[in-house]
Design brief:
By secondary structure, the chain is mostly helical. The protein is built from one helix and no strands.
């Protein structure tokens, strides 16, 4: 007889619960792994973009004429 108080029944219930939790954790781990890969790809693209912008800035700075903020003041000052 398989009653809720039977040790065999309790063991089966615990194993079933653990299998469900394992499956849920396995799904969560897969989801988190995909998210980490996506974030790593995005981070890599952003690092490349920053490097490109730094290069553009480095190339543009020597050519930019030095301008004082006083040159920007309106004539009535």
């Amino acid at each position: 007889m398989n009653t809720p108080h039977d040790p065999h029944h309790r063991l089966e219930a615990r194993v079933a619960d653990l299998e469900i939790r394992f499956s849920d954790n396995d799904d969560l781990l897969d989801t988190l792994n995909r998210l980490v890969v996506q974030q790593q790809d995005r981070l890599h693209r952003l690092e490349q973009e920053v490097a490109r912008l730094q290069q553009q800035l480095a190339e543009a700075e020597p050519r930019a004429p030095f301008r004082s903020l006083r040159d920007e003041l309106p004539p009535h000052y």
